[in-house]
Design brief:
Number of strands: 0
Number of helices: 4
Helix content: 55-70%
Oligomer: single chain
Radius of gyration: 12 Å
Order of helices and strands: HHHH
Length: 87
């Protein structure tokens, strides 16, 4: 399985999957605690990442959600919170 392609099956956990998805979208490895926009995430990348999250988790995250949670660590926590609360 190619873990850098977010359309492939699930890797070991959501945070690892999110790191892989962001790396595939930005075309470079990403640091989980650094701002994704400073690591090359563009507006088109936001759309791609939001779509990948929706396909994997059934969650709709807006561009504002991604701007308010700009690191993989923060975004992973937001996804976990939304999954837990059913939002």
């Amino acid at each position: 399985m190619d873990r850098t392609d977010p359309r492939q099956g699930p890797p070991t956990d959501d945070r690892a999957w999110l790191l892989d998805a962001c790396a595939a979208i930005t075309d470079q490895p990403v640091d989980a605690d650094a701002n994704l926009f400073e690591q090359g995430l563009t507006s088109l990348g936001v759309v791609r990442l939001s779509g990948a999250i929706q396909r994997r988790h059934g969650l709709r995250l807006s561009a504002v959600d991604l701007h308010d949670h700009p690191t993989v660590t923060q975004l992973s926590a937001l996804i976990a919170d939304r999954k837990e609360s059913g939002v």
